[in-house]
Amino acid sequence: MVLQAIAFYLLAATTVAAGLAVITARNPVHSVLFLITAFFSAAGLFVLMGAEFLAMILVVVYVGAVAVLFLFVVMMLDVDFVALREGFARYLPIGAAIAGVMTVEMIFVAVSVASTGAAAGSVGPAGNVGSVSNAEAIGRVLYTDYVYFFQAAGLVLLVAMIGAIVLTLKHREGVRRQDVSRQTARTTATGMRVVSIKSGEGIDE
Amino acid sequence: MIDWGSPIGWLLITFGQIAAVLVWILLSLAFLLLADRKVWAGVMMRKGPNVVGPFGLFQSFADFLKFVFKEVIIPAGADKVIFLLAPLISFTLAFGAWAVMPLAPGWVVANINVGILYLFAISSLGVYGIIMGGWASNSKYPFLGGLRSAAQMVSYEVSIGFVIITVILLSGSLNLQTIVEKQAGGFWHWNVLGGAGLKGLPAALVMFPMAVIFFISALAETNRPPFDLPEAESELVAGYQVEYSSTPYLLFMIGEYTNIVLMCGMIAVLFFGGWQAPFPTPFTASWDPTAASFFGFMWFFLKIIIIFFLFAMVKAIVPRYRYDQLMRLGWKVFLPTSLVAVILVSAWRVFGPGA
Predict the structure, then answer these.
(1) What confidence tens digit (pLDDT) does each residue in B82-95 have?
(2) What DSSP designation does B332 have?
(3) In this complex, is the C-beta atom of A57 within 8 Å of any C-beta atom belonging to chain B?
(4) Which residues does chain A have within 8 Å of residue B119's beta carbon, measured at their own beta carbons?
(5) Which of A31, B82, B110, B120 lies at 20 to 30 Å from B93 by C-alpha?
(6) Is this model's pTM higher than 0.90 or not?
(7) Are residues B19 and B38 in the same domain?
């Protein structure tokens, strides 16, 4: 139990500190790396709560895929730090408004958790119930009770993916594309022909 | 005397297990590295390293000492912290993944319920070492290498994920030890041949291609030739490793080879029965548990070595892919194929004889 408490405070402190560093770091690449640290410690917190399936999915999806692409894009940005700080006063009101809304939301969540959630003594949603591991438990509700929501989420993602492809797909004229099946189907008979040329005349093609 | 049941005793035992696995990996790595070079040399009709020790057996140790005693050079324009953090991350993650690998009956450092997901998660983190190294070097070639690596590893992870799902569907478990135990009873029970004995044999039509796809994706995931584009020496000098020297470079290299051996282990566990012998072994039931574990460990190690030999042969024989061909193979060939395989295996599990 003591070991768990130490691990919890360590991970929680890392998450919060990394989260703060995301917004205070000067270099955007450092920000993304701190964001990844925050994700990773959050996954550690999930493990402590007994939700190991969620923890692993968090690492696979967010850290292993989404954040890689994030880092990929941020690394290629040519950021001018002076210009970046110039607009600070101009965007301050709208930024403060968003921050205010989010703070209120967080307070609501914290209050509801404290009054009805795990803190009030009710059983947490995660954890291994008997012999059923939580991966199996999630699967059982996801594909029965929530199957329509699950399908709808899948559909939304599919539409987003197709949208992204449609937005970026450009067919320029005159670009020679590689057609692998045509290349491999090419034989000596189709790719070569033997001509006999009269000396000094060449072929008129 | 220490009470082994107390938290401190448990801590000591776990540290002992971790140390044993580390020493085993590092020692076998030294000789596998040499074997890799010997195989490569053999294909090219050279002798390979043969000077240090008998048959060059101590070549890896000589190289190790050479790397350790050289000076660490950090480029002036580099982001120092990230530059040094990158090889450490590569190295640590590569070894961290071995925590859940079932080495023999009962021999696993952490027998967790979601072991296979843990392995997948850790191997997908390996890309960070490379991107961070490429970016922090603050130089063009490493940066290009890092970008290539990010795109390549993310692409091939997708098909690896789907192939892993087919294995999970066949085994019905995310626990690696359970996946291996389900493949008991001889090689016709291995997942590559359907995983359910003779009546599961039709599933081999799907699972054998899946094993091949996993093998090829593992090559891409570990940046091995023919997919070593992040370090393609003919275009990018040495890719993300250009600015690295001495121990940081050594950490990158050990991390890379540990990942390769890990992938060999994953292929063995997922498709070739892990520590199961290729024939039924009812006689080990009467053995001492430790002897039975050693027996299983021997088979696991043997399978790793055989698959590593295949990795080495591919490196020697197959020419490097072009970048667009690599992307085409990953997204247009492997992804649809493995997606169809997931559907087929699910149907097999529901409507097949094993249902």
Answers:
(1) 888 889 998 999 89
(2) I
(3) yes
(4) none
(5) A31
(6) no
(7) yes
